[in-house]
Amino acid sequence: MSLTQRFPLGDPVVVGDLVDRLRAEPDGGRLKVGDPRIIEFLTKFARKLLAPAVARRYPELASLGFFLRKSEIRKALTRLADDGDALRFPRGLVFHVPPANVDTIFVYSWALSALAGNHNVVRVSSRSAGAAEEVLIALNAALSEVEPETAALITQTQRMITYDRSDEISGALSLAADLRVIWGGDGSVRALRQYPLAPHARDLTFPDRSSFAVVSVAGWQAASDAERRGAAEGFYNDSYWFDQAACSSPRAIFWVGDADAAASAGEEFRRLLSEVLAAKQHVTEPAMAVQKRVSAYGAAVDGLISKMTFDGNAVATLELTEPAALPREWLGAGTFGSASVRTLSDLVPIVVRKDQTVSQFGFGREELVEFATELAGRGVDRIVPFGSALSFSAVWDGYDLLAEFSRLVSVQV
Amino acid sequence: MSVFTLSQAEREATLLPQLAELTAHHRANSAGYDRILSSLGIARDAEFGSIAELPWLPVRMFKTHDLKSVPDDEVFKTLTSSGTTGSGASRIYLDKEAAGAQTKQLGATLQTVLGGERLPMLMVDTVGIIKNRRSFSARGAGVLGMANFGRKHVYVLDEHDQPDVEAVKGFLERHGDQPFLIFGFTFMVWLYLYEVARDHGLDLSNGILIHSGGWKKLIDRSVDNTEFRRRFKEDTGLHQIYNYYGMIEQIGTVFLEGPSGNSLYCPDFADVVIRDPETWAEQPVGKPGVIEVVSTLPRSYPGHVLLTEDLGVYNGIDDGDWPGKHFSVLGRLPKAEARGCSDTFSGQAA
């Protein structure tokens, strides 16, 4: 069985040949962490994503292009500064299995790994569409705009491929990899783990995660009208961009402070959110509207909620019987558990390892640091302001990705 | 003897008090149902001004939750249907009384077009579909439920799912000159009965066909209800054709096509509401929306007012073959899919 080479474009190849080619020493010398030839290629590629025509069609690609600009790359590499005597080197060959339905993750995963100097093979879903296709076009186009030596190096060391379900191919790539990166949730992790790795290799996994939002009632009261509108807009982006199914999108919102004030703040927030949805001309498909009803009514049957409010089809607010009843599974685009708590500390006992992102509005840094400290690693990998939940960063799910994609060599005299 | 007699005004007057009483009954006997209505802010002593004001449940609730209004020890029969693959099975709980009522009312509904006698019956399916009584497919349950209305059954398909032309010819030789009953799912009837009858010149003019199951599989053959009726009539003589619309979640209630075709009618113990999917308000005649089915039969589980996932449209009210609203089913709502981090096709991950 052969696999399709999507980047660089090439004839179908059998997995054994592909592995042999990818494991070979590149002609221009081994790749280094922060290799200038990779940076040259990435910045050319980023420029293509930032082209107005592309950015207009796929806003998520503009974010990706921004992430890969030279200055951003420098910042990420600086953070990786070697400590003391240790030297940093690439891991070797990295096999990436990105999710089928978020079109850009595979690029972040690949770009950071390439930046760390690895040879990479990325399995791109055959169901990829739209943004993912655009990315592959941009990658192939960038190849003809860099120095020939760079193009040759990229061609020798980097591959994006597509293949249908195959034990043979997944097995061979797993066995050849020094690091395997699995995105796409628990199911994907389990499916890939049946293929053994080499003894020295390991997995970097991104299982199912869920997220929630917190608003400081005092912070809300202190905010200007414009800030409150900004919060609603940020929350809209966080929640509705991927139909609330992204692991970083909030599935519940906790109002932190005085309960009565929380109720009126919550009402105002819902009104503002409805205005944003109207301004964005957000459409809830009938099937999605029904899906949300099924989820909401189901939560009522299960005794998790005491009240549900539907603001049109776009926003469903489910009053939780207790904070611990927060939904962690997808209920349908625009379905939010809601509860009020006195302090952030009240949320500590309900946090689990699965919790990934807390989007916040109205808190000061100290309060948030205190909250994170109190959580003490129970869960939550990132606390971000409203509007930034979906912004990918080089630190993800608690991992410093560049560090994960590289190895340390210590030298003692 | 017909159960298609009530005008819309009579239907409202007759059914609304019964349905309001059913709503109260289910609230009192199904904690889950009561929690839904309470969470919606509907008071226990709420009054409802019309059938369309009654709170509806999405039909898929019966796939995700066990909802019943009878104690466990009174459950006489549990119906399970797996609908579309992967969406889980509906679980419908019937006590003795409810099981009896649904059989009786289904019978009364079909008698309207079949008359009082059990007719010789041609089943457009394979006998294998009802062989395994332990695990029924929805199709098997449908075939078995209908078998009661006929006698001297002959199955059109052999055990290898191939049309058994000789069996059909034999049936017609014995019974073809008197009224006989034909039952099957729409796409099977088209594929295995129409084509066989046409190719072998069989005379089905004394047949009464009852069929259901939707048109999805026939769309790529460009066959809709009108075409289906026309070709059957022209090529086989079959002209008494009754499509019906029903679902396991309202077992016993079928919305039956009228004699002149192309419109479905509500039996006197049922009603239909077409809703605007944006506002959930009732649509006027001619405007498509989501179909809500209403029936007084579900007493052992709170399924008396259900929002389906089908689209439909009123063709008219009190102006068709029979009194009341009459409507067409236009198709299914597409499935709500989300793009997320979790690869819902994890089976593909390998």
Automatic annotation (TrEMBL), chain A:
Key words, A-Z: NADP
Entry keyword NADP: yes
Superkingdom of this protein's organism: Bacteria
Annotated Pfam families: LuxC
Protein name stated in the entry: Long-chain-fatty-acyl-CoA reductase
Source organism: Amycolatopsis magusensis
TrEMBL record, chain B:
Any Pfam family matching the protein: LuxE
InterPro entries attached to this UniProt entry: ANL_N_sf, LuxE
Domain of life of the organism encoding this protein: Bacteria
Domain Acyl-protein synthetase LuxE stretches: 19-346
Name of this protein: Acyl-protein synthetase LuxE domain-containing protein
Source species of the chain: Amycolatopsis magusensis
